[in-house]
Write a sequence for this structure.
């Protein structure tokens, strides 16, 4: 039997998506029966770019090296998959788009107490891009698998579907659809700032006055965080309605729902979320999906 | 008839759809902690329940979408590839379609501008500016320009051929914009309306909002000179970053 060949590459990302693949556990063994990993930085010391049927690329494009590696992947793979939130939307390192390359380099290498005495930037590292950008700004992408990282359940489904020559469909359901917490109406709740201030374990964070992005985030994680008491930070990227409709936005939708549940003034919620925009918009900030929204003025909110 | 489906597993029992529905389609079942579709034939497809639903658990079938022109095509393409089964609004398909939309828009603008003037008074420019900023933020070919000069050139390109705009910028704070061919001047000529009225105010602030968003600047109108062949606007430009 001829095995399908999979090649993977890892750009500006944290390796979490590769690790999530290992989380397939015994299923990985079933997968290895059908496929051959010709290039996978996690297990194999393969520096070249062998021909492959499917290429999975984790991470965003942040440097000259990333760009070259991505182009090599595009050439060597028949189908290219943007694997994980960084690859699809740019990810948290995309926040750099608020400042630009020079400001960041100066801040890190020149303006700190540990900077080198000669006042020069270190040499030899690959040139940085002006800002970190998602993969489809550089090459054509055949399939998208968002998630930070995507739950192994979704990875298994996606790889099987792609090998079977069809497109992995993503459900429009949000994180709330899998969450075990009870969303209920409350009175006299105050907006709580900061994290982990919700005391009740089985009631929705929004009902308790804590901002949770579950309702505006695609379910690519089976609601692991909110079920374990951690608010959703929107790591799988914005939900389908927010991408498709120009008038809907992360902060306005959260404010509407929270206002209906608790009666907290919408303006108060919106103002708070704008002030903390780098937190609440972090995962898809450098993607056109967010920065092209007419009502989103990230640069102004961030004061840069 | 519109068919509504609620995914009961996904539903979190928040009752927001019951509150939001304008025609009172749902009743809340307290025992099962889910909404029930009781008066389905009252539904007129406003989709406000599916918009508010935190779990995206409500779907509608057999709704006729009205024609929409404000969607960002690239975002729709992404959605079409992410969530394959989601029905998407249509985009204008050919020149005839777009021309019909523009003609319709022109007539609507005339009436809308006068209503804005009557109800909101002085905030007419604010409405235009906001609309311009929305346009700048939505255009699919839009890339953030490096300089204000580049923003002006892109804007002129974008407004052609309905408007022919010649910006003359001194690189500092003085900008003089000449508008040659103008869709509004033609429309006003046809309808017998004097130039420099509500529609012109709306157009100027629309253009200024667009340029401002593209070039990261604020534009302040000093003086406008409407004319039957060419209109001129003298503008002062403030850089947003300078406060």
């Amino acid at each position: 039997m001829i095995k399908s060949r999979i090649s993977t590459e890892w750009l500006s990302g944290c390796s979490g998506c590769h690790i999530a693949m290992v989380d397939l556990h015994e299923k990985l063994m079933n997968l290895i029966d059908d496929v051959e990993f010709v290039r996978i930085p996690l297990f194999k010391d393969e520096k070249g770019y062998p021909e492959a049927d499917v290429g999975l690329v984790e991470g965003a494009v942040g440097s000259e090296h990333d760009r070259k590696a991505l182009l090599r992947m595009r050439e060597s793979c028949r189908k290219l998959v943007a694997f994980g939130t960084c690859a699809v939307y740019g990810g948290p390192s995309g926040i750099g788009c608020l400042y630009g390359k020079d400001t960041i380099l100066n801040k890190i290498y020149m303006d700190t107490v540990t900077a080198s005495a000669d006042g020069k930037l270190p040499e030899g590292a690959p040139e940085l891009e002006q800002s970190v950008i998602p993969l489809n700004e550089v090459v054509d992408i055949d399939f998208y698998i968002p998630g930070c990282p995507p739950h192994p359940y979704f990875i298994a489904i996606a790889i099987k579907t792609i090998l079977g020559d069809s497109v992995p469909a993503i459900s429009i359901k949000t994180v709330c659809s899998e969450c075990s917490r009870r969303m209920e109406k409350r009175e006299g709740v105050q907006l709580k700032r900061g994290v982990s201030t919700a005391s009740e374990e089985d009631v929705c964070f929004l009902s308790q006055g804590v901002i949770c992005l579950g309702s505006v985030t695609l379910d690519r994680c089976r609601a692991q965080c909110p079920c374990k008491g951690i608010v959703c930070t929107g790591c799988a990227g914005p939900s389908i309605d927010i991408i498709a409709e120009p008038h809907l936005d992360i902060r306005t939708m959260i404010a509407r729902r929270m206002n209906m549940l608790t009666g907290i003034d919408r303006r108060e919620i919106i103002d708070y979320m704008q002030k903390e925009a780098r937190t609440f918009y972090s995962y898809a900030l450098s993607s056109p999906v967010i920065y092209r929204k007419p009502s989103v003025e990230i640069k102004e909110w961030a004061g840069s | 008839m519109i068919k509504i489906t609620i995914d009961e597993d996904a539903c979190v029992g928040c009752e927001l759809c019951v509150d939001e529905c304008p025609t009172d389609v749902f009743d809340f079942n307290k025992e099962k902690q889910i909404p029930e579709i009781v008066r389905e034939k009252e539904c007129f497809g406003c989709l406000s329940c599916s918009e508010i639903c935190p779990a995206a658990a409500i779907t509608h079938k057999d709704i006729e979408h009205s024609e929409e022109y404000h969607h960002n095509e690239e975002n729709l393409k992404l959605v079409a590839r992410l969530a394959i089964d989601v029905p998407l609004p249509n985009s204008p398909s050919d020149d005839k379609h777009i021309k019909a939309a523009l003609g319709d828009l022109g007539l609507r603008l005339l009436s809308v501008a006068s209503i804005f003037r009557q109800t909101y008074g002085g905030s007419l420019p604010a409405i235009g500016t906001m609309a311009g900023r929305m346009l700048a933020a939505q255009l699919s070919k839009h890339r953030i320009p490096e300089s204000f000069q580049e923003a002006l050139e892109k804007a002129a390109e974008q407004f052609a051929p309905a408007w022919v705009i010649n910006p003359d910028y001194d690189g500092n704070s003085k900008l003089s914009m000449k508008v040659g061919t103008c869709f509004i001047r033609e429309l006003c000529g046809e309808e017998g309306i004097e130039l420099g009225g509500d529609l012109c105010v709306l157009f100027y602030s629309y253009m200024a909002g667009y340029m401002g968003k593209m070039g990261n600047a604020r534009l302040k109108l000093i003086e406008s000179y409407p004319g039957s062949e060419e209109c001129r606007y003298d503008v002062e430009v403030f850089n947003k970053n300078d406060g």
Notes: The radius of gyration of chain B is 23 Å. The domain at 3-64 of chain B is CATH 3.30.70.20 (Alpha-Beta Plaits). Residues 217 and 239 of chain B are 5 Å apart (CA to CA). Chain B touches chain A through 41 residues (CB under 8 Å).
